[in-house]
Amino acid sequence: MTEPLILANATLVLPGETRVGSIALTDGVITDIADGASVPKGAIDLGGDYLCPGLVELHTDNLERHIQPRPKVDWPHAAAIIAHDAELAGTGITTVFDAMRVGSIKAAEARYGAYARSLASELLELRDQDALKISHFLHLRAEVCSETLVNELNEFGDADRVGLVSLMDHTPGQRQFRDMSKLEAYVKGKHGFDDGGFKAHVAGLKRMRDTYGDLHEVEAVKAARRFGAVLASHDDTTAEQVTVSAGHGIHLAEFPTTIEAARACHDHGIKVMMGAPNLIRGGSHSGNVAAKDLAQLELLDVLSSDYVPAALLLAAAQLGELWGDIARGLATVTSAPADAVNLTDRGRIEIGKRADLIRFRMRAGVPALGAVWSRGNRVA
């Protein structure tokens, strides 16, 4: 057993409260919590800064951004994974569920090729080599509107640490993109389609949903059970869609697009996760419900950084201000996401939990990170 590291004179963010105290870390685990501002000999004096559990991120597209920084650019994957890992550590994220799409479309104009199996293997190899700073799990984004979902899901098994499977249905004209003008702007910007290309893209996706959608939804649910993974819905819009989600045994809803759907989720005991960028920007980039509105209606449980890793801590602090309770705001990025995916060893400052911790102080209303520890090791 190594000598404990003591972090003293901190504002501890504990379950349901904050108070001044210190904690001791030994061999990657929290071994003691004490009250008061005293600084024992050899301890690190945090000077009253907040000391919070490390952030738990359930849905981020950040790794995909690193492996494809520009259209048609495939960056070396090991380098991309290491850069992604370091970036997340630098924003206070100590546990991440790396989102990878499964389910592809073979038509050249669609540009949806398979990549998840090979990328996951590279990530897991780096993890086994202890080359990564933080804790990584797999989040398989199961695209039901695709051709190859079943085959791609069958490439994963028990050893892959699949912790989350989300049911993704991007059929045009529903869920995230009910507003076709928003979809058109997004797709043309991403793929460079002209009007004809966009119309062909939409028609192809609708045919795909008619041909494979129901089968793929059933197979994705079965796969999640096979992996022992949590199953999540994505972009529920109506109460009827939420009822279907509940029938699948879903307990986490990613980014419901309406108040109706969010309220139905809570009626069914399904936790609601919203995007931190939505909260910070004051609205959805797709024109859907604002995260702030759900927070004010007591319908928001978990935050995800989605496409901006640095948004996670900032949005949680803003929620704390909105609710008048910083501990409650930070719980949406620590204990709540950990509970949603059944990770009982982290997300709280409690004796016996993993020593995943962040230090920050508020500067001009913005949380400024001072340090990040993963398993008791300083990683940022």
From TrEMBL:
Membrane-crossing residue ranges in chain numbering: none
Domain of life per record: Bacteria
NCBIfam families named in the record: phosphono_phnM, PRK15446.1-5, PRK15446.2-6
PANTHER family assigned to the protein according to its UniProt record, in alphabetical order: ALPHA-D-RIBOSE 1-METHYLPHOSPHONATE 5-TRIPHOSPHATE DIPHOSPHATASE
Protein name: Protein PhnM
Record lineage: Bacteria, Pseudomonadati, Pseudomonadota, Alphaproteobacteria, Rhodobacterales
Primary gene name: phnM
